[in-house]
TrEMBL record:
It comes from Chelatococcus composti. Residues 92-133 form a coiled coil. Residues 53-237 form the Multidrug resistance protein MdtA-like barrel-sandwich hybrid domain. Residues 244-332 form the p-hydroxybenzoic acid efflux pump subunit AaeA-like beta-barrel domain. The keyword Cell division does not apply. Pfam families: Beta-barrel_AAEA, BSH_RND. Keywords: Coiled coil. The keyword Ion transport does not apply. This is Multidrug resistance efflux pump.
Length: 359
């Protein structure tokens, strides 16, 4: 009967086996990391971003009413706060009076035009009579019925009457120019209406409203505060987040818009949310060159292995949770959508999600 018991391994053999096992495991892990980075890339460098609108009044004045509080949800068009409208209402009243004055000015110009036209008719009648008298007296002077001086006086009166007609026509042209065009296109009316519209707009801007649905943030406004035009006084954080994830550029060779994405959040450990790649940024800040007339500046580094360039990928979620803007996230992409890749990707992201319970 033979003894089939294997001889015990020597310490040197056990050490060699451990080294081989660790080397094989490391090689497999490295191979998996390389393959996974190409077919199911993942990155913990991601944040939740919301569109944020900085609210600034377009007119200056003292705040008289504040209708919202910090962290309050508002809808587009909802009044946020009101500025004292007194001087803007006075400006509207003044603009309305100016419009009425412009209308009266137009009426006065119309009366002047009518008077100028009547003066032309009268001057023409006088000129026609002077022409007839001058012609008649000139004929009489030829027959010595009247003296030559009488005929010359009649001719001078004729010339004066004709000149009066031209003067009347010039006054009519001047009146027409002063009045301008007929109807609503008249210059005086347009100017007055523009000033009234601007005054009414300024009055309406004393009620500052939300431009979109969102949540009020960084609000410290109180009644009695003075606000200046163009100076932000609060922010409205939007309700639709976008996940901005930075991936190594070599990991995006198979990624396209519409690919499946899985996201876990540090604030919600253990949970995974489904989404899609919404867009991939066309460039990064380091790739922007300004034509400022200076020479190119080379990149210098003492690192043996340079850091991988990262590219921004924007992910939209199917059912996004409500998180603060800037919350950290981990994004897992599934470019090719295969069953095996999706299963491994889900395992990876769930492992990261579980780790977030601890870190």
């Amino acid at each position: 009967m033979t003894d089939t018991t294997r001889p015990a391994l020597t310490p040197e053999q056990r050490f060699r086996r451990s080294v081989y096992t660790a080397t094989a495991a490391g090689a497999l892990l490295l191979l998996y990391a390389v393959v996974a980075d190409q077919f199911m890339p993942i990155t913990p460098e991601a944040r939740v971003l919301y569109d944020t609108t900085r609210v600034a009044p377009e007119v200056s004045g003292t705040v008289v009413r504040v209708h919202i509080t910090n962290d309050q949800r508002v809808k587009a068009g909802q009044v946020l706060f009101e500025i004292d409208p007194t001087r803007y209402q006075i400006a509207v009243d003044a603009a309305e009076l100016a419009l009425d004055q412009a209308k009266q000015t137009i009426q006065q110009r119309d009366a002047d035009i009518a008077e100028a036209r009547a003066a032309i008719v009268s001057a023409k009648a006088t000129a026609e009579e002077a022409v007839r008298q001058a012609t008649r007296k000139w004929e009489l002077s030829k027959r010595n019925a009247v003296s030559l001086s009488v005929a010359e006086t009649a001719a001078a009166e004729r010339d004066a009457a004709l000149a009066a007609v031209e003067v009347a026509k010039a006054r009519l042209r001047a009146s027409l120019v002063q009045r301008g065009e007929d109807g609503p296109d008249n210059l005086y009316l347009r100017e007055a209406r523009n000033k009234l519209a601007l005054a009414r707009r300024d009055l309406a801007q004393t009620r500052v409203v939300a431009a979109e649905d969102g949540v009020i943030a960084n609000m410290r406004l109180r009644p009695g505060d003075y606000v200046a035009p163009g100076t932000p006084v609060l922010a409205v954080v939007g309700l639709n987040p976008i996940i901005a994830a930075d991936f190594r550029e070599k990991a995006l060779t198979r990624v396209g818009v519409g690919d499946e994405a899985l996201v876990s959040f540090d604030a919600l450990p253990g949970r995974v949310f489904a989404g899609r790649v919404a867009s991939i940024d066309a460039g990064v800040a380091q790739g922007q060159v300004n034509a400022d007339g200076t020479l190119a500046q080379t990149v210098e580094t003492d690192r043996w292995i340079r850091r991988a360039q990262r590219v921004r990928v924007n992910v939209s979620l199917d059912a996004p949770p409500r998180l603060v803007s800037g919350a950290r996230a981990t994004v897992q992409l599934v470019p090719n959508g295969s069953v095996i890749a999706r299963a491994l990707a889900q395992a990876q992201i769930r492992l990261f999600a579980l780790v977030r319970y601890v870190y």
